[in-house]
Amino acid sequence: AKLAIIGLGYVGLPVAAMFAEKGFDVLGMEIREDRVHTINSGKSPIEGDEPGLEELLKKVVGGKKLHATSNYEDLRNRDIILIDVETPVDETHTPRYAALKSACNSLSTVLKPGALVIIESTIAPGTMKGTVLPLLEKNGLKSGRDFLLGNCPERVMPGKLLANLRQMSRVCGGDSPDTSAIMMALYRNIVEADLDAADWATAELVKTVENAYRDVQIAFANEVALICEQAGADVMKVRELVNKSPFRQMHIPGAGVGGHCIPKDPWLLAYGVAGSEVPLRLIPAARAINDQMPHHMVRLLEKALAGQSKKLNECKVLVLGYAYLENSDDTRNSPSAALIGGLDALGAEVVIHDPYVNEYKGDVFEKAAGCDAVVAMVRHDEYVKINLDRLKSTLKTPVLIDGRRVFDAKSARQSGFDYWSVGLGR
Ligand code: SAJ
């Protein structure tokens, strides 16, 4: 079968390469011409380290199994078209479907009868029926009769794209059980894990719910952390003992929730059920709790500095970590960005370090020189190993606010730090 993948980003490109590796004739559709050029020279335009992707691309592009284009006309004879374009939400938490609509619009002009179209992007419940279907049927073709239409949400994490695609189960939401069966046969070529048939609504809900679940779990841990601060307990000890109770899996509290999917998908879920009689309260509240955590870090810092008779607007603060996740260079929706915005607004001078983010690389001790406080936002391995005595000696004021339990309270205090952490009562 002749495949096309629309959107060669961190999902579309690995998917295209994996189907090409299995012998499919794959055409990648990408509007960014520079990426088309990079891919057609067998290279990956994806930032960050993706084990195996570069070699796989060289092989399948070299083997003429994968080719990229930016011309929709080239898609005319394709039997199976997967759509992997971005589906962000804006600052009002409303989905921005411009890319999805444009892809469906363009595809509808070249869609051939008998084709199978599958949306892999994460979309709000109701989007298949309300947005995708009308656009694909606009030239008279009818889903279920002239072409088949499905939703198979992607489940990948940066840094493990190829492994995830092989090992994570997927939901095949077809416009009919027959279409789901055809989707499962297709994905069986690249997925070793479960493939489950479902309808569109179920597929849309599974993806957004699984990430809303994680967001709510993290928010619960964060709220317990705030309780522990007041109660004079250590939330990590409380969590450890709570999780000894059967069926408890309390998540890890911290300095906030970043990334490309957890902060976004709960809003897609909420959007999908907006206007229904179900008033969502828990899911938006969890978002608010998690988005507040960077500001809680500022509050801990202000408290610590007050104890040193310092005010934030006279201080220089070193922020350790700008990525949203440990040992990653991905900065999307980074809680550090929210923290830094807060510190700027309060007049602090901010220095940022992150060994994975180019503009913030450098010697951490040089950056710490003369600072009045260090705020640890990401648990990069490099930070766990920092020599605390040396760090303390470079600082003007030995305040250490730890958002990810990078350091051990006892040893930090032995090194002379005034050490505070999320969820650590005093
Ligand atoms: N975080 C916490 N406490 C936790 C877990 C995470 O504060 O207990 C924070 C992280 O610091 C980060 C954010 O939440 O800022 C997101 O972390 P994440 O571990 O969920 O990483 P992501 O964003 O890569 O999430 C992806 C998701 N996978 C897919 O969308 C396919 C998510 O569903 C997975 O659970 C997660 O990877 C994972 O566990 O690997």
From TrEMBL:
Gene Ontology terms: biological process: polysaccharide biosynthetic process
InterPro entries documented for this protein: 6-PGluconate_DH-like_C_sf (IPR008927), NAD(P)-bd_dom_sf (IPR036291), UDP-Glc/GDP-Man (IPR017476), UDP-Glc/GDP-Man_DH_C (IPR014027), UDP-Glc/GDP-Man_DH_C_sf (IPR036220), UDP-Glc/GDP-Man_DH_dimer (IPR014026), UDP-Glc/GDP-Man_DH_N (IPR001732), UDP_ManNAc/GlcNAc_DH (IPR028359)
Q: Does the keyword NAD apply?
A: yes
Q: What's a Gene Ontology MF term here? A: oxidoreductase activity, acting on the CH-OH group of donors, NAD or NADP as acceptor
- Ranges for the UDP-glucose/GDP-mannose dehydrogenase C-terminal domain? 318-409
Q: Which family does it belong to?
A: Belongs to the UDP-glucose/GDP-mannose dehydrogenase family.
Instruction: Please state what the protein is called.
Output: UDP-glucose/GDP-mannose dehydrogenase C-terminal domain-containing protein
Q: Give the organism, scientific name.
A: Leptolinea tardivitalis
